[in-house]
Amino acid sequence: QVQLVESGGGLVQAGGSLRLSCAPNRPIFGRNTMAWYRQAPGKEREFVAHITTEGATNYAEFVTGRFTISRDNNRMMYLQMNSLKPDDTAVYYCKLEVARGPNFWGQGIQVTVSS
Q: What is the block-wise mean pLDDT of the chain (115 residues), using blocks of 10 residues?
């Protein structure tokens, strides 16, 4: 069983930056994809970005150019968020997708952007 713990959230003014981290409780081996999702109040959870073990990345259109996803091989994953907007306010979730295996979610972390 893999546990994922997010950190780095908080309150920031519009235009500011935050860096989220996702820490698995053990090294992750084999092909996998790590991703960030978010869920704003009253809305469905939505995809933000993902990164594969090969380093390939994909972003939701609404964050392209502002957010950068990265990972430390088989451990930490990060989301650098710049030029934050009030619409980015949400609970951000880390997800691990193991190739031909289960998915794991973190418990989520709040990001609040004030105008």
A: 95 98 91 96 97 95 94 90 97 94 94 97
What are the distances in angstroms from CA 24 to CA 30, 78, 112, 114?
14, 12, 24, 30
Residue among 39, 21, 5 at smallest CA distance from 80: 21
115 within 8 A of 16, measured Cβ to Cβ: no
Neighbouring-strand partners of residue 59: 49
Position 29 scores a pLDDT of 84
Tell which residue, 88, 73, 92, 87, has the closest CA to residue 32. Answer: 73
Cβ-contact 74, 27 below 8 angstroms: yes
Q: Which residue bears the tokens 């091989």?
A: 73
Closest CA to 19 of 94, 78, 71: 78
SS3 86: helix
User: Phi-psi bin for 38: left (phi > 0), alpha (psi -120 to 50), beta?
Assistant: beta
Task: For 104, list phi and psi in degrees, rounded to 5.
Answer: -130, 145
